[in-house]
Amino acid sequence: MTKAQSKITRRNDVFSGRVATRIWQEQPAEDNPYAVEHSRCHGYELLDLVKKRSFVDVLFLLFRGELPTSDESELLEALMVAFINPGPRHPATRSAMNAGIGKTDPALILPIALTAMSGKNNAAGAVEETMRFLRKQQRRQVSDVAMELIENEVRPPEGDWIIALGFGSYYNSIDVQTNKMANHLVSLPAAGKALRWGQEFAEMIASYDLGWLPVGVVAAVLTDLGFQPRAAAGIYQIISAPGLLAHGIELANKPLTDMPFLADEDYFIEE
Question: Pairing state of beta strands 32-41 and 24-29?
């Protein structure tokens, strides 16, 4: 390394003297500056929110900076119930189950499961991109987008066909339950352009055994409710967290034999 290469340059950044947030205000107690007397979320007294508002309302407030209307609250709550549990087939749930039965510290079961849920294969890691896809494509005619994708995308010889972000097949068929949830959500008063566009798109590709995937429904609702795409992955993880944790805790006190173990002849090592 030459002398010129080893030269240290200064960025001359001026750092803030304290942490600042517009989300939360804490008023310290008179006799202890580290003890909180009152908290406000975007200007709303926390105790008032506890008395008068639901968890869903305050979650909306945290990310949007305002309380939801009754219709917006209804839509968000319905979404959270619809996808509260990814189900035992989902890799994130299996991670929670394996952690639980493996006698992992219960405090670590949920973080382990959420790590698996952060992936991009029908998981939270795909929601941001799906929101951006819906924002862009909803300006176009559904039929044009559907025909363009069907003509240009090649169905894989095996496995599921994800024709577009948030839409595709599930075990080579339509994800029936997810599409039922979408049918209900799109009927609610707060459903907007993204949900309606996605519903029409799902109906148009149904003859190819394709439809809504959970990621697509979550992305559409969050788009219609005005959430920022960068927050979407974390919100999807919040929605699915109760189900993941419940499955892990269910197996925490059970023996290892309560989970299947592959026999030697079931293992295949590709040469």
Answer: antiparallel
